[in-house]
Each structure stands twice: as C-alpha cells, then as structure tokens.
DNA sequence: TATCCGATGATAATTATTATCATCTGATAG
DNA sequence: CTATCAGATGATAATAATTATCATCGGATA
C-alpha cells in the first residue's frame, strides 16, 4: 500500500477542467448559475488548504467585495449537496468524544450523525507501513465511513441535514446504495 | 479485510476495567481525582453514542446536578490530553471544504489544522469489499491521518490547541514520532 | 422584455466552545 | 487532624461558527 501526496500541477489542471464543466453541472442540477456560485467554486478549486467558509469568503471578496458570508456558507452547502464539493469530515458540528482507546474506526450517519464503532481486521497493519507524509510527523489515523442509518433511511430522517462528505469510496455523483471502491 | 461492529458486552467489561484504573491514571498524570472527573469519564465510558459535551453533562447531572457545562468541556479536553479519551475527529472546529472529487484521503495537523491531500494506492480497493455495517447503508469512507506538521513541530506551534484524537493507529499514551500499527 | 422562483445581502438568532474570575477542594506537609 | 496551596470548579460573559429571516434582486424561461 503506497501513499502519495497529491501534487499542485495536477491540481491546477484539474481545477480548470472542473471550472469548464461547472455551469453545465449547475444547470443539470436545476440551479441557476450565479456569479457568486462561480466565484465560490473557483476559490475552492484554487485553494490548496481545504478552506473554511470565511477564508473562501475573503478570497471571493477580492473580486466581488459585496459577497455575503452567509451566501458563502449557503453556497458551499449547496455545492456539497449537488456533489461539486465535499467536507473533509461530516462531523464538524460539535466535538464528539470517545472513551474507547482500542484501535477502531467509525461509521457515521450523514443525516443524524449517529456513530458506531467498527473494527476492521487487517486495515491497521496494512496501513502501518504506508503512513508517512513529507512535512508531517504522523501520530495515528482513523477511518470515517459515511453512511445513512436505517432510521434515517426509513423515516426520511427529519433530524439533521445531509450536508455531504462524498467520501473517498464513492464515485462522484452516484447515489447508489452499495459503496464504490472508486479507485482511479 | 473484515469489518466487525464492536459489541456492547465487551464494551461494558472494558468500561469497568477502565474505571478501575482511572484514579491511578489521573495521579500518574499529576491531576487531582475529583468527583466531576470521575463522573464524566464514567458517563463517557457508559455511553454508546460518542456523546457531545452537552449530552455527557446531562447524564452527569442526573447524579451531580450542580456540575457545570464548562467543567464538562474542560474535563473532556483534559481527558483527551492525558490520553484517557479521544475525539472522533480532530476537525470539529469548523467545516473544511474540499473541491477535489477524486478519491483521496487527508493528513491533518492536530495543532494548526493544516490539511493535505494524499492518495493511498490499494486502500480503496482493499476496503471496497469489506465496508458494510448492519443498520447502515454505507456511502463512502475516508481516512484521516493525524499528524503534527513541521512548522508546528519546530516552532512549538503557538497556533491552535492540540486537542487530540488519539487515532486508531496509535498505541494509547505513546507519543512517539513513528506511527504505530496498533492492531490488537 | 416581462415574469417568476430561487438566490442574495444584511442582519438577527442560535449553538458550540472558550475565557474569566471568585470560590472551593483534593493532595500534601506538618 | 489541620493548614496550606495549586489547581479545579461554577457561574457567567465573550467569542466563534453557523443558520434563520426576510426584503430585494437577478438568472432563466416564455
């Protein structure tokens, strides 16, 4: 198992590619293409630092000084909903604590934020040798499995919003029940 | 690679075990053993839902109605610091967005919250078959690698607090530089 | 070009968390 | 057993992030 840091050249090309498709994707999702949306996705794609809403807002305001922070929040949420962006973690709402110190991972319901512990035999040994990232001293790792719990699936889940971390394992814009391996 | 949901019987036994050691661990860390701390770790170990501070506070108040929410926050933070608890994710402070839809994972500096994309060849295919959790429809997954970035390591990193997710890969209470495989 | 629904900006409200500070208490020494 | 003191706690204020509200505006379609 080999770990590679994503490099910047490739990222820039990817950003251009995505921008070229953006208007079409909005239309496909039934959303008007507004200058704010365009500016926000552009700022996101140009950023290398997985920005917060405020940081994107600052960047966007360099060209469009009138843009409201609320719009940035709303738009980023929208982009996640239509699969044009993701959150690094679904669990940013509030700190969730865990008293279990044994090695384990988490299944998270993206609607109600229910969390369950799972152990994945073999994963940690497989990763053990691979984890190294230039510029960082690794301390540990943990896997977040995004899911919808049965309650939310049945009930339509009134509680919580979906606000999606697409998740690595998922083919973008594919909302199947079965998770996707999705290697390039 | 096989995924198992952590079961409740085992958890209960584990909780008793941890409670038996708790006072000693506080002393070892140079911390006074207070009834609040004891009640809070107990509530955390008894919970199955990876609770938020407020939920722990509510539970604790059933026996100690005077306990302050601020104390619960502080204590949970302390417990993380001494390695008696962890957070499910390090990134709960604020939503961090990502425009990169290609499958990838994240290295996160636990001090300054810097994030970098990494790809891990083989991981997603290896997981693809294994990811299933009773009661959940999986959508995707992503690995969060906890680390300290070089800037923070050198500088002593004045920015941000450490507030630890121990991370699965790490042997509890071991602060080595090299990450640990840490399978049971 | 007119119409309309959704988007936006400004701002208030809410929620989670952290800071402040006076008071209290567990741990240690005597 | 009591005095002492550093650190813990409770009450509350302050901050930070996010969401809600609502009047107005502007893309998209006819």
What does this structure look like?
The structure is a homodimer of 184-residue chains. The first copy, chain A, is built from 6 helices and 6 strands. With 184 residues, chain A is of the alpha+beta class. Chain A has 2 domains: 74 residues, Winged helix-like DNA-binding domain superfamily/Winged helix DNA-binding domain (Arc Repressor Mutant, subunit A); 97 residues, Ferric-uptake regulator, C-terminal dimerisarion domain (Dna Ligase, domain 1). A 3-stranded mixed beta sheet of chain A has the order 5-4-6. In chain A, helix 1 packs antiparallel against helix 2. In chain A, 41% of the residues are buried. The interface between A and B is large, with 101 and 102 residues. Strand 3 of chain A pairs antiparallel with strand 2 of chain B, so a sheet runs across the interface. Chain A binds a DNA duplex (30 and 30 nucleotides) through helix 4.
> Which outline of chain A best applies?
globular
Radius of gyration of chain A: 18 Å
Number of helices of chain A: 6
What fold name goes in the CATH topology slot of the largest domain in chain A? Dna Ligase, domain 1
Structural class by sheet pairing and helices of chain A: alpha+beta
Oligomer: homodimer
Termini gap of chain A:
15 Å
